[in-house]
Write a structure and sequence with these properties.
Two copies of one chain form a homodimer. The first copy, chain A, is 85% helix and 0% strand. In chain A, 44% of the residues are buried.
Chain lengths: 227, 227
């Protein structure tokens, strides 16, 4: 039973990484559609959303079953609770990517307002944060989780920069208002994606720190070193 | 043990409602600060955020302890997982209220752009949704959870109305751009608050439906009618 449980945990971790990859590719596709003005990529975002929703329900249910049928140790229990929450965050990253795709769809129909530099930068940072937050979750890597929190500050400064720059465009030229507004909304979606990655990383910090505290309280006998 | 567990579940439910009340009052205070141009209320939002963060950590930990020390039945387990997720949603409702308060702080320093009608309406709808989603969670009321999903559509139409109206202001008068932009961001925060309430309600639907399915699979013997 114990070996089987650990096998199922390993499968769950692999599926969490797969869901994380899907979330990353959604962010990437939505922003690439915008930058390359390529509407074909928008369909791929929508298709990925369906896959994401299926994974969300399936993994949610899998975590429930593992909790219901096994009696996980404190460390595994914290990991499973972290997994349940992270699955929700990943699904919402998918939702935000769909929002970006919708704004991109409108923007592609009009002439470009300006060369896009900060938004692709934000997207790349946010995508990396999703990657690292999931990596830290499945490996229980406290240090990696900390780097995610630091990256979030960089995303927030870019968001402020984008905001200031576009505000100037809008004030100086009314013709830019509608397009600039969509770009601002895209930057807010990217900020939210980074926030979701930060939530996952904060859960990892909570999981690893609490496990440590509990560990010390139990006179140093680690009950599950690997999570 | 069982009686004690049920006592602890009841306390948890009461605390979830308290956290829900706090979230509602944060939304209300932030929007009232904006409408009444009353900066004193902004401090109350910040104070409430600290309380919210404390409750978040405390209830998260309480759910963990109940899961770790008890072996909840399937129905109670689903409720506890729903509680863990809802606590996260409530904390984020608090974050969005703080965002609204920050925008309000800037707007109060300038002359009003226009009488605010749709934003207070959105706030009232969103607040009601938070109220009902929490109510449905603690009582396991499927029907109440469904009404939350319906209200979300009304919030989304108001968001679109606010957007269109402010876009017109911005295009016609560059002086309104900065203020209109803050109002749009506020309407997006209210939309997110409604989304979080919707998430809670969706969890309730998942909990109650799955409990039903499980219930039928067990030949009609309800194991815990009251959740």
């Amino acid at each position: 039973m114990n070996r089987r449980f650990h096998g199922e945990l390993a499968t769950l971790k692999a599926d969490l990484l797969r869901m994380g990859d899907l979330a990353q590719s959604m962010v990437e596709l939505a922003v690439r559609a915008l930058v390359d003005r390529d509407t074909a990529l928008l369909g791929q975002v929508r298709a990925a959303e369906e896959e994401m929703n299926k994974l969300h329900l399936a993994l949610d249910e899998r975590c429930f079953t593992l909790l219901a049928l096994q009696q996980p140790t404190a460390g595994d229990l914290r990991f499973l609770l972290g997994a349940v929450k992270s699955v929700g965050d990943l699904e919402r990253i998918g939702d935000q990517s769909v929002s970006i795709a919708k704004s991109a769809e409108q923007l592609i129909q009009e002439p470009p307002l300006k060369p896009l530099i900060d938004i692709p930068k934000m997207a790349e940072l946010a995508r990396g944060m999703v990657h690292d937050s999931l990596g830290s979750l499945v490996s229980g890597d406290y240090g990696l989780a900390r780097t995610v929190l630091l990256a979030d500050d960089a995303v927030d400064s870019l968001r402020d920069e984008v905001f200031r720059e576009l505000l100037t465009h809008m004030t100086n030229d009314p013709d830019t208002v509608a397009r600039a507004l969509q770009l601002i909304l895209i930057s807010r979606s990217l900020e939210r994606i980074a926030d979701h990655a930060t939530n996952i990383a904060e859960d990892v910090i909570f999981i690893t720190t609490a496990a440590d505290v509990r560990h010390h309280a139990m006179d140093g006998f680690a009950e599950s070193e690997d999570d």
